[in-house]
């Protein structure tokens, strides 16, 4: 029996791999990493944060077994262009094409369902995601070791890795809750994009420009950032959001009083599977 751990370069999947290795040994472990970066293209803001690759390689070495590195050969903005769809918190062509479909194809090409168990880094706070994932990966069996006791917080997982000499991903130190897509995510909220703007303005500018280019290709503006003001929901582009923040700051007003910086959103490429949405966008 092979044990395939979906390694996303985040602390949750690292801890998952460690628990699998502790239980079964490392002889039959495969860590499967699905890259969101175009291979052979080192644009500094495309795909994952450079430090995510450091954490992935060093963390994979601590876990043991083989690290399989697969890529669709395109980045998230290309998937939106190809799908003619701006991803959002409900429909995510990026993680479907670059993550879930790549992973499923690789697994189906190499193993029958009875030959492997899959492992995803969902933890005890995300039980609702586990049920959907069980159904999504059928007929393969999928397990979630971080849902089991002893229950660990993300901080405790980071302390575990650092006790072994593996420094936590730098994005966590910058205030991001996830180590995906370099701090960007179409499922993220106003708070995460504020952090992105303040900690890596050049990366924010890169994505702002890519979004404007996509709107031009689509012939319509379909932003994904959601903001509720006086009970009314509106959608705003990265450009509009940046300009709103700049206007607040220009007036020397407090951003936290006007924007919900606790709106982090829910980023989870493997965790957020939804059968209905998956069917609609693959039709
Ligand atoms: S982190 Fe967000 S933007 Fe990146 S692939 Fe996953 S869902 Fe898409």
Between the first and last Cα atoms, what is the distance in angstroms? 34 Å
Q: Helix count, per DSSP?
A: 12
Strand content: 5-15%
Compute the average pLDDT: 92
Please tell me the total number of domains.
Answer: 2
Shape: globular
Radius of gyration: 19 Å
The CATH topology name of the largest domain reads Rossmann fold
Low-confidence stretches: 279-283
Helix content: 40-55%
CATH second-level architecture of the largest domain:
3-Layer(aba) Sandwich
Bound molecule kinds, no repeats: iron/sulfur cluster
**Number of strand elements:** 7
CATH superfamily of the largest domain: HUPs
Structure characterization notes:
The chain starts with a strand and ends with a helix. It folds into 2 domains: 2-174, Rossmann fold (3-Layer(aba) Sandwich); 190-258, no CATH class. 46% of the residues lie in helices and 12% in strands. By secondary structure, it is an alpha/beta fold. The chain has helices spanning 11-24, 50-63, 76-83, 93-110, 127-136, 154-163, 170-173, 190-199, 201-218, 238-250, 255-258, 275-282; strands at residues 2-6, 29-35, 66-71, 116-119, 141-143, 225-229, 232-236. It is globular, with a radius of gyration of 19 Å. It is built from 12 helices and 7 strands. Helix 3 crosses helix 4. Strands 3-2-1-4-5 form a 5-stranded parallel beta sheet, sandwiched between helices. The protein has a two-stranded antiparallel sheet with strand order 6-7. Iron/sulfur cluster is lined by residues 36, 76, 87, 92, 94-95, 98, 180-181, 185-187, 267, 269.
């Amino acid at each position: 029996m092979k044990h395939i751990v979906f390694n996303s370069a985040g602390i949750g999947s690292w801890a998952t791999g460690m628990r699998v290795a502790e239980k079964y040994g490392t002889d039959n472990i495969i860590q499967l990493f699905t890259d969101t970066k175009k291979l052979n293209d080192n644009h500094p803001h495309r795909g994952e944060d450079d430090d995510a690759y450091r954490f992935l390689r060093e963390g994979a070495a601590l876990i043991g077994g083989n690290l399989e590195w697969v890529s669709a050969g395109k980045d998230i903005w290309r998937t939106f262009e190809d799908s003619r769809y701006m991803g959002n918190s409900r429909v995510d062509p990026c993680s479907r094409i670059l993550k879930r479909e790549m992973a499923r194809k690789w697994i189906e090409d190499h193993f029958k369902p009875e030959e492997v168990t899959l492992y995803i880094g969902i933890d005890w706070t995300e039980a609702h995601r586990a049920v959907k994932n069980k159904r999504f990966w059928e007929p393969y069996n999928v397990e979630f070791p971080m849902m089991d006791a002893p229950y660990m917080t993300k901080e405790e997982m980071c302390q575990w890795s650092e006790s072994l000499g593996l420094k936590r991903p730098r994005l966590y130190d910058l205030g991001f809750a996830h180590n995906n897509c370099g701090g960007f995510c179409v499922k993220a909220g106003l708070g995460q994009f504020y952090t992105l703007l303040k900690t890596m303005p050049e990366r924010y500018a890169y994505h702002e420009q890519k979004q404007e280019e996509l709107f031009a290709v689509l012939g319509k503006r379909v932003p994904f950032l959601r903001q509720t003001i006086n009970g009314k929901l509106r959608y705003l582009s990265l450009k509009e959001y940046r300009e709103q923040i700049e206007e607040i700051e220009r007036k020397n007003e407090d951003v936290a009083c006007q924007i919900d910086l606790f709106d982090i959103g829910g980023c989870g490429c493997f965790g957020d599977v939804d059968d209905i949405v998956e069917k609609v966008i693959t039709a």
